[in-house]
Design a protein that fits this description.
By secondary structure, the protein is mostly helical. It has a single domain, classed as ABC transporter involved in vitamin B12 uptake, BtuC, CATH 1.10.3470. 71% of the residues lie in helices and 0% in strands. The chain is built from 15 helices and no strands. It has helices spanning 12-20, 24-32, 36-39, 44-67, 75-90, 96-118, 123-143, 145-148, 173-194, 197-207, 219-245, 255-268, 275-293, 298-312, 316-332. The relative contact order is 0.17. Mean pLDDT is 88; it is low at 1-7.
Length: 333
């Protein structure tokens, strides 16, 4: 970002244009996502799950990191997307891309309906309502055994080949490419939203919800829009999970999934765009390795790891790196 010249008027449009420009580290990061094909070809299934978790964390970051709205029930949208794509495929339409679009639309509609409740409550009441909605949707899915499969999960999900050519194989090659492309395209959209006047207004609401209406920002309508967008991308992540595993478990709607994605976001750094991506990758890899080393008590070691990270890096990994860079620059100057 170019510094403003002394005495020049502040131009928010120029600031936003500077933020939209791609940096070298961003390009390196996305090129590095292709490394698992060479370095860890036996872990491509895990890599596809990391990409899905990263997209899910990105959708939550739009609420928590940029709008300042804490949600402990974001799995509602993940689960709705997963069941929408899974049911569509089970009942005869297994085309992946149109299934993603269908699940996104359904989840956006659910998010729109729920948003009328969310914009009317704040603080602890909002947290409790999100938890309640998560439990409510989970019990609804469990009770509709003939539709969702209940505790047995939704089985019989059969996906077609992508473009009629690329079949989902047991090694996870197609699944990883598919989820990576979907996550990257979603990231581009979210990146553009965040670095726009709309995204700037979200950060303003996060900093001071009382002052924003005074300068003419329609709070309720902005909050409804961000709920719908966040729900849409969370549903997209759920649909990707259903399509790549060809199965939907009841825990897609569980409180545990909501808590895990929030942990991923806090671990990486909320409100930093790449924080959700980094946090999801670290959480998923740590969980996989710890579960392999200690199948009985791996949650203990995972919890200990998270506590240590949060104590020493309260703003997440990217927040800690940013603070370190600022200290180095201040010493040099």
């Amino acid at each position: 970002m170019n510094a403003q010249t002394p005495g020049a008027a502040f131009n928010p449009q120029e600031v936003l244009r500077a933020q939209v420009r791609w940096r070298a580290l961003e390009i390196i990061f996305w090129v590095a996502t292709l490394a698992p094909f060479v370095l860890t070809p036996n872990y491509l299934i895990l890599c596809s799950q990391i990409a899905i978790a990263a997209l899910f964390a990105l959708s939550l970051d739009l609420l928590v990191g940029y709008s300042g709205i804490v949600s402990l029930g974001h799995a509602v949208y993940f689960g709705v997307g997963a069941y929408s794509a899974g049911l569509l495929a089970k009942h005869g339409w297994g085309e992946p891309i149109s299934g993603l679009l269908f699940a996104s639309v359904v989840t956006a509609l659910v998010g729109y309906l729920i948003s009328f409740i969310m914009v009317r409550i704040t603080h602890f009441a909002l947290i409790m309502v999100t938890v309640g909605l998560c439990l409510l949707f989970g019990e609804i899915a469990n009770s509709l055994h003939d539709v969702t499969g209940g505790d047995d999960g939704l089985q019989g999900v059969k996906m077609w080949s992508i473009f009629g050519i690329y079949r989902f194989d047991m090694f996870g090659r197609t699944a990883y490419v598919y989820t990576l492309v979907a996550t990257f395209l979603s990231f581009l959209v979210l990146r553009r939203i965040i670095n726009s006047p709309f995204g700037l207004s979200l950060r303003g609401m996060r900093e001071n919800q009382r002052r924003m209406p005074a300068i003419g920002v329609p709070m309720k309508s902005r909050l409804q829009v961000v709920y719908v967008i966040s729900a849409c991308f969370a549903g997209l992540a759920g649909a990707l999970s259903a399509q790549t595993t060809q199965f939907v478990a009841l825990d897609a709607l569980s409180f545990q999934r909501s808590a895990e994605v929030l942990v991923m976001l806090i671990l990486g750094g909320a409100g930093r765009l790449y924080g959700g991506l980094i946090g999801a990758a670290m959480f998923m890899v740590a969980r996989d390795q710890l579960a392999d080393m200690n199948p009985q008590y791996w949650y203990f070691w995972l919890g200990l790891l998270l506590v240590i990270v949060i104590i020493f890096l309260p703003n997440g990994i990217l927040g800690g790196l940013a603070a370190l860079i600022d200290r180095v620059r201040s010493r040099r100057s």
